[in-house]
From TrEMBL:
Entry coiled-coil feature ranges: none
Source superkingdom: Bacteria
Species assigned in the record: Catellatospora coxensis
Record family assignment: Belongs to the glycosyl hydrolase 3 family.
Protein name per the record: Beta-N-acetylhexosaminidase
InterPro entries to which the protein is assigned, alphabetical: GH, Glyco_hydro_3_AS, Glyco_hydro_3_N, Glyco_hydro_3_N_sf, NagZ_Beta-hexosaminidase
GO BP of this protein: carbohydrate metabolic process; peptidoglycan turnover
Alphabetical UniProt keywords: Glycosidase, Hydrolase, Signal
């Protein structure tokens, strides 16, 4: 090992020591999640020595595998159908996810599942998330495969469990509302409690990395691909929410990820299909987009995801994914981030302009440590190995990346999983947050918003929310009818003015509430989410059982942030 590499490990050990001092990396520093067990306190110097010892024994192929986090086809690590095997052969030349891990010495794997309203569906080619029991069995099989590798370190198993429109696992889980709901409730204490619950349940199914929270500050035009995935338009308030989410997930035993650096909230384009241009001046980038990332870094966020974004004020014309100016000069040197940098999906359009092997090398050279969802695992792995051999990718850069990944693994990756029976049991931890977010943007405050018989209607595809609200209204004492009555109309993600109901007494938006500006209803309400708990909170407000305490975290044309002082 070179003297420069040894110095790097000592610096990283000092960073981990500082994090332990302020209780930032809970599981890495000895504070276990609430799962009935404890992790032994680890001396950062011992961790660094262990990491150095592991790396010393690694070949170039081992190192290359550790920086890859692909997807795989199949809901089981080892038992796959012919069609599933064909999918894995196409991207990795193997039949099963377990074989993929073993062949390429993988450091991680991402699990995927998506629904009809998912704005990220464009680059989600598989759906291997079905239920808590199935995911727990899958992750157990993946970890068993990783345990057979010479490095004998845990696998990083990631998931985009943002909640709201991007929720990979819904069945059997306690479902949190969207990020914008948290922003409307504006109570970081409730946010931390809710995200701790989510962290515990993710850890229980074997997921140790969550690609959340979204730290993007929503601009005036409002990025449609980000939308309610953002906590809002106020950088300081959004930063408080980001910190609470990071702390909550850490307490639950899961590594949080800030995304999409350096900020996707002021763009109109969708990075899944094209390269968005971030036109913010450097000054506005610092005070607006970067504010939430600075807050998250200060709180000890262990992972940051780079965005496929053309940041004009830093490195015009170059996707941040491939920009050393963005990821090394800005993120590492200027902002001081010492954790793991992971790319956004490398099967997204901006990254697909470069062959998988070349793209992986370019991303590492820019400053990424973990390559997410390469479109072809074999080509990405071989590209890294070949580049090290040719000298175009310094081995020291690869060692640096693997060192950061292993430090993360020796923390979050080794925490004992909570019992599977804890999954789906944390509604009481989330309900106060969902209720506190309900916002009245037009109408009286402090009394029932509906009187007499009530009829609930909804735009197409929202039967689940309509049914939940109907039952919740009945529980709150309202008379709900199938014909006549005062109409409460629900709209949500992707709806337009054509989806509004002209005669509705109350119109409720269950996503970014800008459409409410076009409604003629006498009462306008925002829940920012269609989750069951959001519908329960809405019913309590409509019937006067609870005061609407939420405040819109974004501007809605012609409407106040709330009619309640």
């Amino acid at each position: 090992m070179t003297s420069s590499t040894q110095k790097w490990f000592r610096r990283l050990g000092a960073v981990v020591s500082g994090l332990c001092t302020v209780a930032v990396v809970a599981s890495a520093c000895g504070t276990a999640p609430d799962n009935g067990g404890t992790l032994p306190m680890q001396d950062p110097a011992d961790v660094s020595a262990k990491v150095a010892g592991i790396i010393k024994k690694m070949s170039d192929a081992d190192l290359a595998g550790q920086v890859l986090m692909p997807f795989a086809y199949g809901r089981s690590a080892t038992d796959v159908s012919a069609g599933t095997a064909a999918g894995n052969k196409a991207i990795a030349g193997v039949d099963t996810p377990a074989q993929m891990i073993e062949k390429y010495r993988l450091g991680g794997m991402i699990l995927i599942g998506f629904g009809g309203n998912d704005p990220t569906a464009a680059n989600q080619p598989v759906n291997n998330v079905q239920s808590p029991e199935q995911v727990r069995a899958l992750t157990g099989g993946l970890q068993a495969a990783a345990a057979r590798l010479p490095a004998d370190v845990p696998l990083l198993i990631g998931m985009d469990q943002e909640f709201g429109v991007v929720t990979r696992l819904t069945t059997g889980m306690t479902v949190l509302p969207s990020a914008m709901t948290f922003g409307a409730a504006a109570d970081p204490r409730l946010t931390e409690v809710a995200w701790r619950a989510a962290g515990l349940e993710l850890a229980a199914v074997g997921v140790n990395v969550n690609f959340a929270p979204v730290a993007d500050v929503l601009g005036p035009a409002g990025s449609t691909v980000i939308g309610s995935r953002s906590y809002g338009s106020d950088p300081r308030a959004a930063g408080d929410q980001v910190v609470a989410a990071v702390n909550g997930m850490r307490a639950g035993g899961v590594a949080a990820t800030l995304k999409h650096f350096p900020g996707h909230g002021h763009t109109s384009a969708d990075s899944h299909t094209e390269l968005p241009v971030v036109k913010q001046s450097r000054q506005l980038l610092d005070t607006d987009d970067l504010a939430t990332f600075k807050a998250g870094i200060k709180a000890g966020a262990p992972i940051i995801m780079s965005g496929h974004l053309d940041v004009q004020s830093v490195d015009p014309g170059v996707a941040a994914t491939f920009s050393k100016k963005v990821l090394t000069d800005l993120l590492r040197k200027e902002l001081g981030f010492q954790g793991v940098v992971v790319t956004d999906g490398m099967n997204m359009a901006p990254a697909m302009k470069v062959p998988p092997g070349e793209a992986a090398v370019k991303a590492l050279l820019a400053g990424n440590d973990l390559i997410l969802m390469p479109p072809h695992v074999g080509q990405a792995h071989q590209g890294i190995v070949d580049a090290v051999k040719a000298g175009t990718l310094p081995r020291s850069r690869l060692v640096e990346a693997v060192g950061r990944i292993l430090h993360l693994k020796l923390g979050f990756g080794q925490a004992a999983a909570p019992a599977l029976s804890t999954v789906g049991t944390h509604q009481q931890d989330v309900a106060p947050l969902a209720a506190a977010a309900v916002t009245v943007l037009r109408g009286a405050c402090g009394k029932a918003l509906v009187a007499g018989p009530v009829r609930v209607t909804a735009s197409a595809g929202r039967d689940k929310a309509r049914n939940r609200l109907t039952e919740a209204l009945k529980t709150s004492g309202a008379t709900v009818v199938e014909t006549g009555g005062s109409v409460v109309h629900l709209v949500g993600y992707g709806d337009t003015a054509e989806d509004l109901a002209a005669g509705a007494a109350v119109t409720v938006h269950m996503d970014v509430p800008t459409l409410l500006a076009k409604s003629t209803s006498k009462v306008l309400v925002a829940t920012y989410s269609s989750s069951d708990l959001s519908m329960d909170g809405l019913a309590a407000v409509l019937t006067g059982k609870a005061k609407p305490t939420g405040r819109s975290p974004i501007e809605v044309a012609g409407l106040p942030r709330t009619t309640c002082a």
